[in-house]
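Recap quiz, item 2
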Amino acid sequence: MDKKLKPKDALIETASRLFKLRGYCGVGLNDIIAESGVPKGSLYHYFPEGKEQLATAAINYTKQLVIEDIQQVFADASNPLDAFQTYVYELSKAFGEGGDPLGSPIGTIAGETHTTSETIRLACDSTFKDWQAIYAEKFLEAGYSAQDSTSLAVTFHALTEGGILLALTSKSGKPLEAIANQIPFLLAQK
Amino acid sequence: MDKKLKPKDALIETASRLFKLRGYCGVGLNDIIAESGVPKGSLYHYFPEGKEQLATAAINYTKQLVIEDIQQVFADASNPLDAFQTYVYELSKAFGEGGDPLGSPIGTIAGETHTTSETIRLACDSTFKDWQAIYAEKFLEAGYSAQDSTSLAVTFHALTEGGILLALTSKSGKPLEAIANQIPFLLAQK
DNA sequence: GTCTATAACCAGATAGAC
DNA sequence: GTCTATCTGGTTATAGAC
């Protein structure tokens, strides 16, 4: 598979997909080379520092995918309420029944490695901050103060990370659905 | 260490502590026996089904610890707003600088194993539902409808799970602080 | 007989040589 | 791109201590 991808991209794509499903420690390099079809020699050619370096590339790849997804949803929304509700509702469909199984974009990796790999922890931290910056911008545009915007961005990011975790654990889109339904009330007062 | 604990309890306590910090796959049985001082033979005496069985016991142990923590905070709070804000604020202190390093109670384990171990996934799912039941009860007592109470319970649980993840990743209590500060606004309208 | 201690097992890991 | 080295994973076997 991945015949059309260059070896390096095939490695990143496969790694990011498997890490989402089983976490960093749960995926072996053998799994990645088997699924990507890229030989082990090539892996160490493109990623001489090994698994950590491949994981960092996979995290940055996932970061970009998520950014594009968020921006697409946000482009069509006129206010933060619509934007977030639509986004979480879309997540609930993606993690619900039917469709390809998805994992946590990078949350599991962050939870596993925050004490063991400073490199990966920093990659996750920077990814989280980039996502939050997009959220904060949406609040700023709507007239919220800078301080409120960043706090709300953190809060909504936490909501999505936690919601995805609950969806995966219960194998159901319902937790994210419940969260999406609450969002109008959560933002009603401001 | 753990001289005063019985071997079985020492294993559960050590396992739950290490799993919180490094996840399920990231902790080897060798780490657990080394830190607990319990020999490998005893481990398989008390947990004949091995690592999965020990992990399930560790999850249930952590579940109980968290339940007691929640109930203690909730007992002193007259309304859900105070209850949740106090709880999240307490989390922010626990995950902030100083003090023992903490990990995600079971969130990382859930993220790692949802596709690989149905046994552990179900233990995590049941733990999450038990915690949410306590949250929902607090809302019910305050006069919220049954449906709103369960939805709000899911939402606040997601907030805590996501907030803890952000705290660990950034090695800071600030994300949880920001969330705690937003809670009055999130619940203001009802 | 319950529990402990240690040693051996083999599959799998990452890594790297050829 | 294959093939090997080295090490660690979880597991099991067996012998001894209480």
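DSSP finds nine helices and no strands in chain A.
The domain at 7-186 of chain A is CATH 1.10.357.10 (Tetracycline Repressor; domain 2).
End of item.
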